[in-house]
Write a structure and sequence with these properties.
This protein is an alpha/beta fold. It has 29 helices and 35 strands. It has a seven-stranded mixed sheet with strand order 14-13-26-25-24-15-16. Strand 32 and strand 33 form a beta hairpin. The protein starts with a strand and ends in an 8-residue tail after the last helix. The N terminus is likely disordered.
Length: 958
């Protein structure tokens, strides 16, 4: 594979104004060059399309034209004066001159005035060499500033001291003295991010950028640290602290973010092997040049002092760790696993793949189980998050993935969001949705908690259905009842794309009075009139889309809820065109890919069952070994088998199952009963407390490969620095496999992808050359779709006819009562990610240093609790302590906790209830009691002591 290094001149090519979508075009002349562009395009962008650069300061191609800086003026034949090219639309036959003596004088004079108000000492600053202001000054031929240096209006806005440097944010600094009040940061905060945290305060000479109230700084304001303002600033008034500390970069490598399932493309700006900054790629098809705090700034964990860089082993988990070389560690692990199989049988060991590792690495781990261990004992974190998505969408549509690309949101008229919190969990997608809402799209949120998307400024309208946790199926079926009863369904679509007789039976099921909103209100707590309004709005929307998350799947009826969602989409014809679809918002960066790569115990890559002889023959021929036709153990089955003495060895790559899986006590007992637990990760995580082998992993910055995001988009991950542990993760898996006699000989991840393409129909056309050329593609990518498939089920469903499934509501076994009267549901927060192993080792912890429990004021008052008090959260499974946050976001009777910090061990209270079809845990419904506490529980204290003992490392031998 070729190196994908972007030449410096192409780092930040900006077309000046956004692209215009239009079927009509005009032709004009720019400096004698003929150029044809869509009607409505600005002269500035038309010139850029012709390869002509017009200097600018206030304009950017991700912002609407503003026309304030007057640097981009041009002359247009037949038009008086010198109009700003950013705000002037093209016209047929227009003749534009961008370089005349008069224009040059005007531009030079304007830029000189800006420079006269710019601190002279900053002109020599190294950081300035990378700023647009410096480049524009050079472009207009400005060499000297004639004006004597006077007071800088940002340093002295009406007072002697002026505006102070704002270094409150740990990731960037705002120097008001360098600000020219171009408003690009304010506009980026509004138009791109949608937070509206920044304003221009004051007037005239005293005008300046303000982060909220006069008493606010960037840290205390509504700023979410997405970096859009920093990226927009042309003068380095807003500048990354890493640039201030390290200097300007020397080269750029394009890669993919390793956080959530949005899959943002980033340009890693490098100085040697040091990351200077991460800038969202403008050509990233998932993020379109935007980012969030995690991808933009929270990559420092890759070089954190906590990283373990040397392999470690120990005979018993009570022993301290002993650092060893790679050969000894791999031999130790191989001998242990080989011995376990010899003693307990072939099925006594298994693997857990990682949703944070690449497709290629995940493929090798499941291959290790099947081709080397000789069983199908492979599972992944999707078991505890999105396995119901695979089951539900495969049953109804025929595929185990979302139907549409993220660009589709630009065409939606109504977004129904259920069990998801996009602003915290998938913030870049949320920004795109907010933009569409400002353009008039409506939103319906079905969630026990009021989420931030409902507070979006300038949105057309929002509806919140605050259902009781565990009643998703009842509410969705009631919505479908209204659509069926009032004849709001799309009969033409159903007759063409589904089985009409099957729908008729489903309609009869829906019309049963027990599914009426008035009946469902008794169960769900959602007012019947809200259910009816939501049904009518969704059915009436020209393009209705559904987005959902773990609040759908992590239930005892998770698979049923996914099928209820699919039923709704089919009923209203909202499948197969832009602006519609069923779109699961995946939590981790490669959870879709880990499923695609065959991580489940019953499926090979591409979701083909292990009992299918034709599929088995493909892999037996490719791998040269016979393969088992017996489905393997799911993660919960592994734990149960371990406690029964039948499962004794586990290779766990990149997942912290002790912190992330439910019923922590059960997991810890299962791990303790195993004879060899191999943890392959960046840090000594909670699972490593019970491990016998620790294999240090590599971060996304240290490897090549691919991730697959929530829209099925396969994105390249490119190595920007050498692996600090000596190996990429795929190489470590290969070392272990070969120590067990596998004889693998991969030399680069591209060879693994070639094997994936050779054996997996949906990936048949995928190669690194294609991804380098196209940037990314969405599977299925094969002979029928050589450039991928942005929208699925356009002309028909993959399974043939869409399948309507009866969605009977079955109440969870978890019930409230006198001892446990409240219902706990869990979720994430913007600044932290999953179990926090990465984000807790960055400055993101400044925003969320500990987990909190949200509780309604009435429930808090009944218990004598105040905001910030320590409280004990107890369930039938266990208890933990954390601080209370009193809020009306949750309804009375419902509490909400985050789960990012191991000190909390939130899953010690969750039960072992799970989805009927997939064993996905029911994290979102736990009966609890909340009471005042003096601090950590006995369990937390014991666990802290255990952790301290388990992480002892013997000093290195002299």
């Amino acid at each position: 594979m070729k190196d994908f290094i972007i030449p410096p001149k192409d780092w930040s090519r900006d077309m000046g104004t956004p692209a215009i979508r239009s079927d009509q075009h005009v032709t004009l002349s720019v400096d004698g060059l003929s150029v044809t562009v869509p009607t409505g395009t600005s002269v500035l962008r038309a010139a850029a399309e012709a390869g002509i650069t017009i200097p600018k300061l206030c304009a950017s191609d991700n912002l609407e034209a503003f026309g304030s800086c007057r640097v981009c003026v041009v002359e247009i034949e037949g038009m008086r004066g010198t109009p700003a090219s950013c705000t002037t639309p093209v016209a047929e036959g227009m003749v534009v001159h961008t370089q005349t003596d008069a224009i040059s004088r005007i531009r030079r004079g304007v830029v000189e005035l800006y420079m006269s108000d710019y601190p002279r000492d900053a002109l020599a600053c190294n950081a300035l060499a990378d700023s647009e202001l410096h480049a524009v000054a050079s472009a207009v031929g400005l060499r000297d500033v004639r004006y004597t240096e006077g007071r800088n209006h940002q340093r002295y806005p009406g007072n002697a001291e002026g505006l102070p440097l704002d270094a409150s944010n740990p990731y960037f600094t705002f120097d008001p003295s360098k600000c020219i009040v171009c408003s690009r940061c304010v506009r980026a905060c509004e138009e791109v991010q949608g937070t509206f945290a920044l304003t221009i305060a004051g007037r005239g000479w005293d005008s300046h950028v303000s982060a909220g109230m006069a008493s606010d700084d960037f840290l205390s304001s509504d700023c979410v640290s997405c970096g859009a303002c920093v990226q927009a600033c042309p003068t380095d008034a807003l500048l990354e602290n890493t640039v201030i500390q390290t200097g300007t970069p020397e080269h750029v490598v394009k890669t993919t973010c390793a956080y959530c399932g949005v899959g943002c493309s980033f340009d890693a700006h490098m100085r040697g092997e040091t990351v200077v900054k991460m800038v969202p790629s403008k050509d990233g098809k998932a993020n379109r040049g935007h980012s969030c705090i995690k991808g933009r700034f929270a990559w420092g964990y890759a070089t954190h002092a906590d990283r373990v860089l040397n392999p470690m082993i120990r005979d018993r988990i009570e022993d301290p760790w002993r650092e060893v070389g790679w050969d000894e560690a791999i031999s130790f692990a191989a001998d242990k696993m080989r011995g376990i199989q010899a003693k307990y049988g072939r099925d006594s060991v298994g693997v857990i793949t990682s949703s944070r590792c690449t497709n290629e690495e995940t493929f090798l781990v499941q291959k290790l189980a099947r081709a080397v261990f000789g069983n199908n004992n492979t599972d992944t974190c999707a078991r505890v998050c999105h396995s119901p998505t695979g089951y539900g969408l495969r049953t109804t549509f025929g595929t185990s993935a979302g139907t549409h690309d993220f660009d589709s949101v630009e065409h939606t008229d109504l977004a129904l969001i259920i069990g998801a919190n996009p602003t915290d969990g998938h913030p870049v997608f949320a920004s795109r949705l907010r933009r569409r809402m400002r353009q008039g799209a409506k939103v319906i949120v079905i969630d026990p908690r009021r989420i931030d998307i409902l507070e979006s400024p300038h949105m057309a309208g929002g509806m919140h259905l605050p259902l009781r946790p565990g009643t998703n199926v009842a509410v969705l079926t009631a919505i479908a009842h209204v659509i069926a009863a009032e004849g709001l369904y799309d009969e033409a679509f159903i007759r063409a794309r589904c089985d009409w007789d099957e729908f008729a039976a489903y309609r009869a099921f829906l019309l049963d009075p027990r599914h009426a909103p008035e009946e469902v209100e008794k169960t769900s707590g959602v007012p019947a009139d809200l259910i009816r309004q939501a049904a009518r709005q969704y059915a009436a929307a020209p393009n209705g889309s559904i987005y959902y998350g773990l609040g759908v799947t992590e239930h005892s009826q998770g698979s049923t809820t996914v099928m209820a969602i699919a039923n709704l989409a089919m009923m209203c014809g909202n499948i197969g065109r832009p602006g519609t679809g069923v779109n699961p918002l995946r939590g981790q960066n490669n959870v879709q890919g880990s499923c695609d790569m065959g991580s489940f115990p019953h499926e090979y890559p591409g979701y083909r069952h292990v009992t299918d002889p034709e599929t088995r023959r493909i892999y037996e021929a490719a791998w040269g070994v016979p393969l088992s036709d017996e489905p393997g153990l799911r993660i919960p089955n592994m734990f149960d088998a371990a406690l029964q003495g039948r499962f004794k060895g586990l290779y766990c790559q990149g997942e912290d199952i002790l912190q992330s899986d439910p019923d922590t006590r059960h997991v810890s007992k299962a791990l303790s009963s195993m004879e060899c637990v191999i943890v392959h990760d960046l840090f000594l995580n909670e699972t490593a407390n019970y491990a016998h082998v620790f294999l240090p992993g590599s971060s996304f910055l240290e490897k090549d490969g691919t991730f697959t995001n929530a829209e099925r988009r396969i994105n390249m991950v490119r190595r920007v620095m050498s692996p600090k542990n000596g190996y990429a993760d795929w190489e470590i898996t290969q070392l272990l496999a070969n120590a067990l006699g596998a004889g693998w000989d991969y030399t680069h991840p591209s060879e693994i992808m070639d094997e994936i393409a050779m054996t997996t129909p949906s990936f048949a056309g995928v190669s690194y050359d294609l991804l380098d050329r196209e940037g990314s593609v969405q599977w299925p990518c094969n002979a029928k779709a050589p450039l991928g498939t942005p929208i699925m089920h356009v002309d028909g469903f993959v399974r043939g006819k869409g399948h309507f499934v009866h969605t009977e509501y079955v109440a969870t076994d978890e019930r409230t009562g006198p001892r446990y009267p409240l219902l706990l549901t869990t979720g994430r927060i913007l600044s932290q990610y999953n179990v926090g192993a990465q984000t807790r080792r960055t400055a993101n912890s400044l925003w969320h240093p500990e987990d909190v429990l949200e509780i309604h004021p009435s429930d808090a008052e009944n218990r004598g609790l105040r905001d910030g008090d320590w409280v004990q959260l107890a369930s039938r499974a266990g208890a933990t302590s954390l601080r209370a946050k009193i809020t009306e976001r949750v309804a009375p009777g419902v509490v909400y906790a985050t789960f990012h910090h191991p000190q909390t061990q939130a899953n010690v209270v969750t039960t072992d209830n799970s989805d009927w079809a997939t064993n996905c845990p029911e994290y979102k419904v736990t009966a609890v009691q909340v009471s005042a506490s003096n601090g950590p529980t006995e369990w937390q204290s014991e666990y802290a002591a255990l952790t301290e003992r388990a992480r002892r490392v013997l000093p290195a031998a002299e």
